[in-house]
Design a protein that fits this description.
- With 262 residues, the protein is an alpha+beta fold.
- The chain has two domains: 76 residues, Nucleic acid-binding proteins (OB fold (Dihydrolipoamide Acetyltransferase, E2P), Beta Barrel), CATH 2.40.50.140; 170 residues, Recombination protein O, C-terminal domain (de novo design (two linked rop proteins), Up-down Bundle), CATH 1.20.1440.120.
- Helix content is 35%, strand content 21%.
- A five-stranded mixed beta barrel has the order 1-2-3-5-4. Strands 7-6-8 form a three-stranded antiparallel β-sheet.
- A hairpin with a 4-residue loop joins strand 6 and strand 7.
- Bound molecules: zinc ion.
- Zinc ion (ZN) binds next to loops.
């Protein structure tokens, strides 16, 4: 039997209103996987919990087991990631991370690697030179931790090592097919040029982002890399990630006025 109260630490990855003053909050926790809890009265101006349970907040909390949903008793902020709220582009990337975490994790199934990855990525997000690449690295790591690493080294059909050349990614097979195997009945195929393949493999190889921030990537390769990862992720989650479009729009806004794109 579960005890009536428990303590954990987690990152708020989603929240939505419940009734007049409450909120249902989804957290990715250090030890319990994803949990959904009710934060009562949190939308009232004087609520003690209010400031604690915001999106992107890392909190230590105590909750009581409820009949349907558990209820938060107390919460203390560990890290609010407040700097991110000052910069819309970084914030939009962080929101996208939350949506991916929600999609790739399961309730009450411990996933410490995803938790560590989330905190590590958020801690870098504020001052990283290339947030775009940080997000791609996060995607690749999360795919790897979830058992969905795209196959980019060997042909998904025959197992032959792939030659260094332009390739095409077979979406339903989750990997690249060699030219002699082709694509048979594949319904979706994503072209990926040699330079983009190099970037993707680099992202796969480097478990830490430490050595990646300075890497220069052409606009064409960026396009291919993002398209492949987004398509692969969409196929896995079987749904559109609403915030992916938001991120794209914000990036376009950020790039257009100054013309300093790339
Ligand atoms: Zn093959």
């Amino acid at each position: 039997m579960r005890s009536r109260t428990y303590s954990t630490e987690g990152l708020v990855i989603r929240q939505y209103p419940l009734g007049e003053a409450d909120r249902i909050v989804t957290l990715l926790t250090r030890d319990l996987g994803k949990i959904r809890v009710v934060a009562k009265g949190v939308r009232r101006p004087k609520s003690k919990l209010g400031g604690q349970m915001e999106l992107l907040s890392q909190v230590a909390l105590t909750a009581s087991v409820g009949r349907d949903l558990d209820v938060v008793n107390e919460a203390q902020t560990v890290n609010r990631h407040q700097n991110l709220s000052q910069r819309l582009d970084r914030l939009s990337h962080a929101i996208y991370l939350c949506e991916l975490l929600d999609g790739f994790t399961t309730e009450h199934s411990s996933n410490y690697p995803a938790y560590r990855l989330a905190l590590d990525t958020l801690s870098r997000m504020d001052d990283v030179a290339n947030p775009w690449l940080l997000v791609r690295h996060f995607e690749m790591r999360l795919l790897d931790e979830s058992g969905f690493n795209p196959e980019l080294t060997q042909c998904v059909e025959c197992g032959a090592m792939l030659e260094p050349q332009d390739h095409r990614f077979n979406v339903s097979a989750g990997g690249v097919s060699c030219p002699s195997c082709g694509f048979g009945e594949a319904t979706a195929v994503v072209p990926v040029q040699l330079n983009a393949m190099k970037v993707l493999r680099l992202l796969q190889r480097e478990r830490s982002f430490d050595r990646l921030d300075g890497v220069r990537i052409s606009k064409a390769a960026r396009y291919d890399v993002e398209r492949l990862l987004t398509t692969h992720i969409r196929y896995i989650l079987e749904r559109e990630l609403r915030s992916a479009d938001f991120v794209r729009k914000v990036s376009q806004l950020a790039e257009s006025p100054s013309g300093q794109a790339g």
